[in-house]
Amino acid sequence: MTERHAVILGAGSAGTAAARALAGQGDVRTTVVGRTGEIPYSRMLVKNVAYGQAAPELIRLPAPHGELVADTAERVDPATQEVHLASGATISYDALLVATGSGARGLDADVAGVEHAVRTGRLLTLHSLDDAVRLQVAIAACGESARVAIYGGGLIASETASTLQVLGHQVSLVARSQVPGVAGFGRPVAERVAADHEARVTTFFGRTVRRVLATPDATVVTLDDGTDLEVDLVVVALGTTPAAPSPWRDGVAVDDRLRVHGHGAVYAAGGVAVHHDDHLGTWRIDHWEDSAAQGVHAAQTVLHDLGRGEDPGPYRPRSAYMATIHGRMISGVGYTGHPGTRVAQADGLVVLHEQEGTVVGVSGIEAVGEIYGWGSRLHEARA
């Protein structure tokens, strides 16, 4: 058979998983394109760097299978099947998998003082390894008890608030919702997490940030009700946005096999992929295990389309995640984006996320065994 060239853009969870899935295909050559000057690392572990619990070199990933090119992909030309890199070089492909991940969502443009706060190192995010290093340095510079305002109410914001509080820092948690995390956890889990926040850190729920004023002595965060919070640092944790090369904006739209709409021989997986299917509608998941599962599935679709394997069928999210928040283990599996739930009691709290009467995801507190059991059932139901 003629050798075919599969190019993977991104050396994170989805990209490295896809490269592993393509390994051993003697007539398929694989090239993984990472970012310029960046060594692949586990984004799942960047929080450990931020909290001073791990050195950056300890979260590096093994070299991906195939050739690794550290040269950021800036533009894709599907008509000529070429990738244009930051160095000016181009790479031709027979199949292209876009797995470039995501970036941290920033504050709205109408929030005053943001640019100055970022320049002075007072306003930070926690998404990349560079973010984690900057946050670790900034917290260390504040001494034993930093005053930290966290803006957000999801998994990263909650876990960061919990960890910094345990480490002895003074935490103020600002969230736009009165019950943060409903969309991700379901209301029963979110209400318990919110109660734990209120018992352990200073909370401002149902509030938004209107101004961030970095002065020589402190940073003043002004909320929409006029409340001023005097802190040392602000951590923005408002979720992520897809990070795709041109010609895509706002993510790369894929079908249920992870093929990119409108472009032959192009696929996408992980945090950059925006899914449109008849089962769940439009959705995006951006956590490590699901990205890896998407990468494998996309690679299997590539092999099928190249005539090297079976059709893997439609992709259905069924990967698990875990986080410790204020001493409780929060876990989930599958797609937990539907807030409408019904609740089952096992050893802990279990919330079933349903789509038209079918369980598509499960979340819970202190119920890891139950959650993983559901993961197996979701896998069997969708195999």
Automatic annotation (TrEMBL):
Please tell me whether the keyword Flavoprotein is annotated for this protein: yes
Per UniProt, the keywords (alphabetical) are: FAD, Flavoprotein, Oxidoreductase
Top-rank taxon, per record:
Bacteria
Keyword field contains Ribonucleoprotein: no
* InterPro entries cross-referenced by the UniProt entry: FAD-oxidoreductase/Apoptosis, FAD/NAD-bd_sf, FAD/NAD-binding_dom
Q: Where is the FAD/NAD(P)-binding domain?
A: 6-295
Q: Which cofactor does it need?
A: FAD
Protein name as annotated: FAD-dependent oxidoreductase
Organism for this UniProt entry: Oerskovia rustica
